[in-house]
Amino acid sequence: NVPPLYASDGTVRLVYGFKDIAEKGDFLLHGFDAAEAVVGGGRGKRSRKRAARQLTNGKGKNVRFELAAGSRGALMLHNVFLEDDFSITITVHIVRATNRSDLVFFVGQGGARFGSQPVVKRGSSFKPVSKSAVDRTAFADGGQAKVELVGKDGVLTTKINGVAISTTNNLRGKLDGQFGLYVRDMVVQVHGLEIKGRVDAKKMKLPQD
Q1: Are 177 and 109 a contacting pair, CB within 8 Å?
Q2: What are phi and psi of 34, to 5 degrees?
Q3: Phi, psi torsion values for 194, nearest 5 degrees
Q4: Long-range contacts at 48-52 (CB < 8 A, ≥ 24 apart)
Q5: Are 82 and 197 in contact (CB under 8 A)?
Q6: pLDDT tens digits for 36-86?
C-alpha cells in the first residue's frame, strides 16, 4: 500500500511514514492488545480520534503507529519476503516498558534484541548468537531511536542513531524472509520504516509501475 521504488540492481525500496491508514494493510499483526494510529505521544481516545481525522483527511501530521503487547508477546510482520542483501531502517520510541519487556527487530530468523544483541528465532523465542549484551540506552526515558539492520553476504550489522552497535556472521542462512518486530510487555510507537532489498519472487510479487 505504498508505491514501490525500483532500482536498476533489481532491489526495491518501500517507505512507510504511517500517515495513510492503508499502510497498516501491508503488515500481519498477531497478538497485540492494540495496534492503532495516535497523534504525538498521547494514548487516550482524544489522541486516537485526532489521528483518525488526520488520516481520513489525508494529512497525517504527527501521526504514529502504536503497538501495545502484553506478557505473551506479539508479532508484526511485513508481507514482503526478502532474499539476499537488505537494509532496514526503523524509528521507534518506547512509551511504556517493564523489566520483562522485549523488543526484537528481525528479518527471516535472525535479528537483534533492542537493536544491539544478535539473536536467532528458535521456536517461539529469540536466542542470543553472540556474547554481545543487550543495550537499552538509546530507548531510555522515551528517547526516539533509529535502528538500522543491514544484511550483506550473510553478515548482519546493526546501528542505532547512526552508531555501529553489533556485527555477526553467526546468522548465515537465517536472514531470508519477512521483516518483523517482536514486542513483549511494552507499548512502542513506530515513527517511520524503510525496507530495501530484493523480493523473493517465488513468494511475493509487487505490482509493477
Answers
A1: yes
A2: -155, 145
A3: -130, 130
A4: 52/21
A5: yes
A6: 888 655 555 554 455 455 444 555 556 789 999 999 999 999 999 999 999
> Phi and psi for 53 in degrees, rounded to 5?
-65, -45
First to last CA, the chain: 13
* pTM, to two decimals: 0.87
DSSP string, 141-179: GG-EEEEEEEEETTEEEEEETTEEEEEESTTTT---EEE
Contact (CB, 8 A) for 179 and 88: yes
Three-class secondary structure of residue 206 per DSSP: coil
pLDDT at 95: 93
Cα–Cα distances in Å, from 80 out to 13, 102, 113, 124, 150? 11, 24, 22, 21, 17
Q: Torsions phi, psi of 86, nearest 5?
A: -155, 165
Closest CA to 124 of 204, 30, 203, 26: 30
Amino acid present at 47: S
Nearest to 83 by CA among 203, 209, 163, 180: 203
d(CA 39, CA 52): 9
| Grid cell digits, residue 29 | 499483526
